[in-house]
């Protein structure tokens, strides 16, 4: 949806942003008065949030919400097995779907014969050491079956990403791991170098710190590629009940509630990882901060839509070549 017209007026957009940022500010000031343990154990009540959203939307959108939650619970490695794999020479393998997914065997057939597959197995074994002991024991029950390159999303353009297929007791017990390249933070030029020498470990540490329930297979590793360059990566499950709301389906009232939920979640992450008292004091009790962020957000949205229109016009005129529906 990036760049496209949301259908909201500037006033409605502003109301959504104010709801999100206002709830962030109020939540942060609330966290500032809580004990360390209370902050750490704070959780969003999904049932209460769902009830609020359903009270504000019609039957069609309530049905979509229920469908989305059910879909999230079905986002597991078993589901991905049917979507991403097939039997090749009697063995389950990741199927090619270029340019989105390309198996390693298609990319580097000669290197596989030279032992690259064994090197990958060693890589996974080394990654195992970055997990908690109980999760190491779980991972040891799986064996690497295949690996493929995967195109990443917009936020990770230019970085490397792989998916690894593993099996446990049999072919009906799969585990898909995603291996994503981790580069230095864009803030490092301003805030100084990270205390972590491995950028994958930095990402994992940040996720574990800020998320109430992190992926149990979060880990990291440094790899020297075929070009003899060392790169840092972090590991996670490809699917583990992740839920993403279709915001294009939300009317302004539902969107405001969704924004409030996002604001509270971000406040909890900042309260766990930063100085919640200093942040709460900086934000204050008035809405000055809220209004400033709303000004920026509305202007940014308008600029984003203008850029998207220009991109479509350039494609139509033949100034650029773009492939759609990939």
Task: Outline the structure in words.
- By secondary structure, the chain is an alpha+beta fold.
- It has 2 domains: 10-72 and 249-316, no CATH class; 77-237, no CATH class.
- Helix content is 51%, strand content 15%.
- The chain has 14 helices and 8 strands.
- It has helices at residues 10-32, 36-40, 46-56, 59-73, 77-84, 104-107, 109-113, 116-128, 133-139, 188-191, 199-210, 252-273, 276-283, 288-317; strands at residues 85-88, 91-94, 101-103, 143-150, 161-167, 174-181, 219-224, 230-237.
- The strands form 2 sheets. The protein has a 6-stranded antiparallel sheet with strand order 3-4-5-6-8-7, sandwiched between helices. Strands 1-2 form a two-stranded antiparallel sheet.
- It is globular.
Average pLDDT:
84
Uncertain regions: pLDDT < 50 for 5+ in a row? none
Count of helix runs? 14
Please report the total strand number as a whole number: 8
Any key phrases for this structure?
15% strand; 326 residues; six-stranded antiparallel beta sheet; 8 strands; 14 helices; alpha+beta; two-stranded antiparallel sheet; globular
